[in-house]
């Protein structure tokens, strides 16, 4: 099942952060937000806001974001995940998960679009079907986005192509990419903490 971002966030709220409490401390202009369920480290997150950097550490991994603004808890109210991910400079987890189901769906859509949109001869259809078959095999044997990308690169060099160019293969190599839950959780934790702090202020 391919989950939407909204479904992912609901799962995090329900199963990761349902009893988390926000605690804020400040030292020389550095804001530290501890977001955790009291008495446990499970799914605990520490956010350190220092200048235009956001440092994250804790039970769900570590990450550093280089912001273009002075980071505060309140400054993330209107930040969306796509925009935040553009600020990621490093992380302890893989940037992407590989979803076989998502990759297969995207490959099917790619093939249907190529077959339907082009009025080509049998050689064109044969080439598309051959690429589809080889990429399906690459999907089934892949366990990471890096592995899949290398497998697609191999298909590009091994399959005779007359109608499909490198741009298509570059696009195909991105099939199946999904952001891990932790990145949604990083941003959601700040927003939930901010909301909680407003109520208790």
Describe the structure.
The model has no long low-confidence stretch (mean pLDDT 92). This protein is elongated. The strands form two sheets. A six-stranded antiparallel beta sheet has the order 1-2-3-4-5-6, covered by helices on one side. A two-stranded antiparallel ribbon has the order 7-8. It has two domains: 108 residues, no CATH class; 81 residues, no CATH class. With 201 residues, the chain is of the alpha+beta class. Helix content is 47%, strand content 19%.
Keywords:
six-stranded antiparallel beta sheet, 2 domains, single chain, 47% helix, alpha+beta, 201 residues
Short description:
The chain contains seven helices and eight strands. It has 201 residues and is α+β, with helices and mostly antiparallel strands. It has two domains: 5-91 and 180-200, no CATH class; 98-178, no CATH class.
C-alpha geometry = elongated
Give the H and E element order.
HEEEEEHEEHHHHEH
The rounded Rg comes to: 22 Å
Mean pLDDT: 92
Question: Into which percentage range does the β-strand content fall?
Answer: 15-25%
Give a short account of the largest sheet: 6 strands, antiparallel
Number of helical segments? 7
First-residue to last-residue Cα separation: 40 Å
How many E-type strands? 8
Helix content: 40-55%
Q: Any low-confidence stretches, pLDDT <50, length ≥5?
A: none
Helix and strand content put the structural class at: alpha+beta
């Amino acid at each position: 099942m391919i989950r939407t971002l909204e479904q992912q966030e609901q799962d995090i709220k329900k199963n990761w952060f349902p009893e988390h409490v926000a605690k804020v401390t400040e030292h020389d202009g550095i804001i530290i937000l501890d977001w955790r369920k009291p008495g446990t480290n499970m799914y605990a997150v520490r956010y350190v806001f220092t200048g235009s950097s956001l440092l994250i550490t804790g039970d769900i991994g570590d990450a550093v974001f280089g912001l273009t603004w002075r980071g505060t808890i309140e400054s993330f109210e209107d930040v969306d995940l796509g925009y935040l991910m553009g600020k990621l400079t490093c992380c302890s987890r893989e940037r992407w998960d590989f979803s076989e189901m998502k990759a297969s769906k995207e490959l099917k859509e790619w093939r249907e679009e190529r077959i339907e949109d082009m009025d080509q001869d049998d050689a064109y259809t044969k080439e598309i079907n051959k690429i589809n078959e080889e990429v399906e095999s690459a999907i089934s044997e892949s366990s990471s986005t890096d592995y899949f990308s290398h497998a697609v690169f191999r298909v590009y060099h091994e399959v005779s192509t007359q109608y499909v160019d490198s741009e298509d293969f570059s696009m195909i190599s991105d099939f199946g990419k999904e952001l891990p839950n932790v990145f949604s959780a990083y941003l959601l934790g700040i927003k939930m903490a901010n909301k909680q702090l407003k109520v208790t202020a």
